[in-house]
Structure formats: structure tokens, C-alpha cells
Amino acid sequence: MKALFRSRLARFAVPAVAAVALIPLAAPGANADDVIRNPNGCNVFVTIQTSWNPPMEETHDLGGCVLGQPVLNDNNYTGQDPYVFGIGTDGALWYDRANDIYGRSWTGWRSLGGRLTGGLRTWSDTSARVGVGGTGLDGQFWCTWNWGPNSDNWVSWQHC
């Protein structure tokens, strides 16, 4: 059974990335009220629906301090573990990845570097890669993506 993530994040347009077939985030996980943060920016929370019948949810405190609204990629299409992304207080992009599709435990926050000011978007492709990007200091959209399912190896930042 795949984990189901509810969220109230606005749906985002997916940027074009050459030679990558993108799957738009839709259905479970695409509009989030599951990824929230305290008003002070610290302690990111994710609420996960782990069962339809009976409906069951689990809320996890991922800690961390982020600027603006974090974004969730649950990649239900391929059963990949969910990722949460946020811009850290240092301006770099940070992520936390669940250790399973139900989000029962998480790897801890890791930096992807870069210098972003906002506009975070995330997407998945048919190879179960997760992409993420945002507006850089130069006003351009910058992105990176991982090398495959549940991978913590990411390509270098580039204009997308």
C-alpha cells in the first residue's frame, strides 16, 4: 500500500527539463496541508495518511528551520519515499527524506547547497527521480534532481 499525503500547497507548473519525462504531481500529495511549519520557521511537520480504511494519519516533526513554505514530493506514482524541501536560514536548499513510503522515520535534514530566494517547486519523472528547484539570487529558476529512486545523490545545480 502506498502512503498517501494530503497537502494544501498550491499546484505548481513543472519547468521543462530536457530529456526528462515529467509526471505532474496530482491526486494524493499534490495540494498539501501536510507540510507546515511553525510561524517562527522552525519545526517542519508532515502529516501522512497511512490508511484509507479506517482513515489513519501520522504527524511527524522533522525539526529544521526553513524560510517560507516547504514543499513535499511524495512520488506516489513509483512508490518512492517522500521528500520534503525547504530553503534554510542560510539560503541553501535543504531536504529530508523518509526511510519508507509511509514516512515512519526520516533521514534528517541535508543540504543541497545553492542560494535560493523562493519559488520552490518539485516534480517526479517516470524513472522515479525527484527534481526540485527555485528562484536563485539572479532571479532565474535553478534546479537539481537525484539519480534515481530514494537516492541521496544529486546532479549539479543548473538553469532550468
Overview of the structural elements:
Helices cover 0% and strands 46% of the residues. It has one domain. It is globular, with a radius of gyration of 14 Å. The chain starts with a strand and ends with a strand. The chain contains no helices and twelve strands. The relative contact order is 0.19.
Question: TL;DR of this structure?
Answer:
This protein is mainly beta.
What key attributes describe this structure?
disordered N terminus, 0% helix
The main sheet comes to: 7 strands, antiparallel
What is the count of distinct domains? Answer: 1
Given the C-alpha coordinates, what overall shape results?
globular
Tally of strands: 12
- Structural class per helix/strand content? mainly beta
Number of helices: 0
Distance between the termini: 34 Å
Please trace the helix and strand order, writing H or E for each element: EEEEEEEEEEEE
> Overall mean pLDDT score?
74
Spans with pLDDT under 50 lasting ≥5 residues? Answer: 1-33
- Which bin fits the share of residues in helices? under 10%
Beta-strand share of residues: over 45%
- Estimated radius of gyration: 14 Å
